[in-house]
Amino acid sequence: MKFALFSLLSNIPNAVTGETLTAQQKFQNVLRQAELAESLGFEAYGVGERHGAPFLSSSPPVILTAIAARTSRIRLLTTVTVLSVLDPVRVAEDYATLDHLSGGRLELIIGKGNDPRHYPLFGISEEEQWESLAERYELLKRLWQEENVTWEGRYRPKLEQVTTQPRPFQQHIPVWHGSASSTLSTELAAKYGEPLFSSNTFHPQAKYKALIDHYRERLAYYGHDPQSAVVGAGAGSLYLANTKEEAIRRFKPYYDAFYATPAAQHNQSPFRDIEDNVANGPILVGSPDSVIAKILDYQQAFGSQVLSISVDGLTEAEQREQIERFADEVMPVLRREVPSTVWNNPPVTRGQSVFGSSGHSPVLHV
């Protein structure tokens, strides 16, 4: 198994100390967190996209560029890029630039997002989100793969013979499809034969497994091999302690504070409280052994090769404690137990090819 640490830059008052970080302090916290993740052997660091309080992550390409300047190895993910509301020309330009500045370490996870506040900001309705995402992604792919693109659609002005600059550094910037609530996301991933990343954050395992199963079924429909499918999964928050009871006690104030925010309540999680989530949901709160057992249970259900975790909301000292303990006591076991084909090879840049002169990238493999 491979591992990603991610942040949505949620900046609410600390539930234990009452401390509130300034925006500058939170940005610096995330930069240090990414450096720590690289030093501890995480394969990737992700920054999500949100457009409203309490999140400060409205500009992932800018934040990831700063992280790229302070790291050298770790992959840089968007968790997720809310492509349903963004101009594909701007996305193509911004992320191709980041791809160069990071030396080809960029990977996008695209989605429609789960915070309805961004729709009026960018001039589309929530009812249009899936059609908008599909159209914008089709254009983004063309802009990265082709030159002199002529295009006309519904969600941006038409293009005539456009070649975006810079061209991506990688031959093909890997794109994952974020999946949380609808088979429309898994359908789009299957259509293009591209990897799926399940949010696996707010609901029971069965909901996310049904979406992943649909993805594999539709891969076969579109002529791709379901056995080669690449799946990643989130897990929400992480908190480790010597016993499950201690972890629940220590994390409960943080859990309650986050689930009281409007952003969390929008997801309508069915879990009554932290104890219910620990017993029946995806949250990783417990002893190292109990957390390992839960991750392996979910991995068996999903067939996932990548796990993403977050320590948003904790004090910086607790963030470091949790990340280091996860790297020391959990990651080695899961690396042994779960094979992963993801991120085993360096990025393929323009002018190189994994197939000699053909220039085609392998479907489903990242």
UniProtKB/TrEMBL annotation:
The keyword Iron does not apply. One of its GO terms (molecular function) is oxidoreductase activity, acting on paired donors, with incorporation or reduction of molecular oxygen. Residues 12-303 form the Luciferase-like domain. Pfam families: Bac_luciferase. One of its GO terms (cellular component) is cytosol. Keywords: Monooxygenase, Oxidoreductase. This is LLM class flavin-dependent oxidoreductase.
